[in-house]
């Protein structure tokens, strides 16, 4: 298949990529290689390009300059029809949870499974129970989203991201709406499920307290460029 590239152990590869919003270049000369199973922050000031970079990685913004691939999908030749297939390989988690408010948790998860080709009821029920158990939310299956706290809704959003066994989770400020204690819980959860599923995580965040609590590797967006650093450098 011309639109796929299964080479190498990296789940994300960008080579001399330019990240563009409308006609405005947000980031240029982006060279990024993230191995399978790695956890990496995405940091940088407001407007530095974190969300734009994530959008290119999940096929929401086209890669018009440079080359790259995510989960085996070539980005520079990605067609609209390939995007759902790429998204099936990814788990995406947003700041505002984005649960469907008109149905309960079980039906939120069922909706995603059915939309991605699952059709056997027993297997659907089993997978929903598995992901809810892995985020400690099995008893909340019949609750509506508004009956859950922000932290619980984010746990459900993480469970939803895990449904199709993703190789990569892209998280855009997943703790942005949560208090510090709940943020730490969500971070612990994300790190654990990533490890258990051998899943890479790229997580955009502004939260330096959390970065200090959970040090690691970071992709930094600054002055239109991207670099890799260790978060310990932020606190020297
Ligand atoms: N839809 C859009 N159309 C045009 N320009 C955009 C659009 N979205 C973002 N931009 C511009 O692209 C640049 C990068 O924005 P982006 O949202 O990627 O930054 P960010 O680092 O995620 O910021 P924040 O931390 O505030 O979420 C900004 O200058 C922004 O104004």
UniProtKB/TrEMBL annotation:
A Gene Ontology biological process noted in the UniProt record is: cell division
Q: Name the UniProt key words of this record, in alphabetical order.
A: ATP-binding, Cell cycle, Cell division, Nucleotide-binding
The record's family statement is: Belongs to the ABC transporter superfamily.
SUPFAM superfamilies in UniProt: P-loop containing nucleoside triphosphate hydrolases (SSF52540)
Gene3D superfamilies, from UniProt? P-loop containing nucleotide triphosphate hydrolases (3.40.50.300)
Q: Which organism is it from?
A: Halpernia frigidisoli
User: A cellular component term (GO) from this record?
Assistant: plasma membrane
Domain ABC transporter: where?
12-236
Matching entries from Pfam families are given as: ABC_tran
Q: What is the role of this chain?
A: Part of the ABC transporter FtsEX involved in cellular division. Important for assembly or stability of the septal ring.
Q: What is this protein called?
A: Cell division ATP-binding protein FtsE
Q: Which GO terms describe its molecular function?
A: ATP binding; ATP hydrolysis activity; transmembrane transporter activity
């Amino acid at each position: 298949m011309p639109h796929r590239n299964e080479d190498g152990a990296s789940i994300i590869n960008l080579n001399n990529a330019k990240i563009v919003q409308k006609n405005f270049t947000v980031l240029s000369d982006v060279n990024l290689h993230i191995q399978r199973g790695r956890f990496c922050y995405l940091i940088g000031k407001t407007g530095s390009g974190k969300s734009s970079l994530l959008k290119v990685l999940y096929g929401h913004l086209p890669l018009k300059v440079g080359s790259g691939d995510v989960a085996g999908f070539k980005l520079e030749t990605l067609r609209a029809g390939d995007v759902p297939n790429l998204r099936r390989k990814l788990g995406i988690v947003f700041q505002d949870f984005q649960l469907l408010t008109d149905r309960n948790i079980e039906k939120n998860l069922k909706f995603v499974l059915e939309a991605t080709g699952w059709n056997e009821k027993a297997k659907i029920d089993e997978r929903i129970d598995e992901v809810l158990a892995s985020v400690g939310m099995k008893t909340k299956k019949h609750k509506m989203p508004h009956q859950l706290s922000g932290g619980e809704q984010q746990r459900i959003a993480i469970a939803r991201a895990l449904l199709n066994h993703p190789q990569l989770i892209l998280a855009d400020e997943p703790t942005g709406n949560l208090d510090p204690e709940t943020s730490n819980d969500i971070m612990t959860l994300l790190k654990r499920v990533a490890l258990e599923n051998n899943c890479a995580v790229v997580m955009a965040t502004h939260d330096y307290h959390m970065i200090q609590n959970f040090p690691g590797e970071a992709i930094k967006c600054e002055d239109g460029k991207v670099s890799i650093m260790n978060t310990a450098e932020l606190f020297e």
